[in-house]
Fold:
Amino acid sequence: MNKVSISVIISTYNSEEWLRKVLEGYMYQNYKNYEVIVADDGSRAETKELIESFQKKYTVPLRHIWHEDKGYRRQRILNEAIIKSNFEYILFTDGDCIPRKDFVSVHARFAEKGYFLSGGYCKLPMKTSKVISKNDIETGDCFNVKWLKQHDRLKGTQSLKLKSNPRVATILDLITPTNASFNNCNSSAWKEDLLAINGYDERMQYGGPDRELGERLENYGLKAKQIRHKAICLHLDHARGYKTKESLERNLAIRKDTKKSERYWTEHGIQKSN
Structure:
């Protein structure tokens, strides 16, 4: 297996119940050469206290990078996490996505120069999201299709992801019609490539900033590799109060310009132009 050193960056905002389950998931990975960074867009003190409680028992480095709550500034805190990451390869995920025990090792296995990796998630309803316990994560029961269906519905496409062995998953990733885009819940790239495009565009709000970053990586010359049926995580249900028509329209305009201009560098990223 590729022994690449990985920085796992988890974005969060005032969601301690879900973040607790996610941090549990990263305690039981079958890969050890990684660190975990929580990129916090201004959460309350309870989030800090939760992370500190995990730091006492974590077997890999666990860090908390926080900035003041001044509205939705997720891309800025992600850029800060990129800068402060210690390792050569960065795996992005969210504070509502519980990783299966082989999640980090799959990203390590398929990491390759000239590529970024594109994963997805298995979307759960609220009832199932709530019932998942620490023990269910440790044993892996919550990734079992039969166990999940005992609690609530599960779409056939999600069942297929969870039941696929490595050989079937490889075939499904080859034939899936889903575009291999950069998805912040489950995507990874080399740190040097992220720095070469100046990270995330901080003008963007909710709705596609990760896709835009992936489009600039492609403009830079990288190709996308599909791993949506191999790298498995469970997406816990939640409301999206920060989703607005205005932010979506603005983001689409920025993405349209990125495609038209074929630019890979953003003037609104890690390095700011005056």
Remarks:
- The chain has a mean pLDDT of 95.
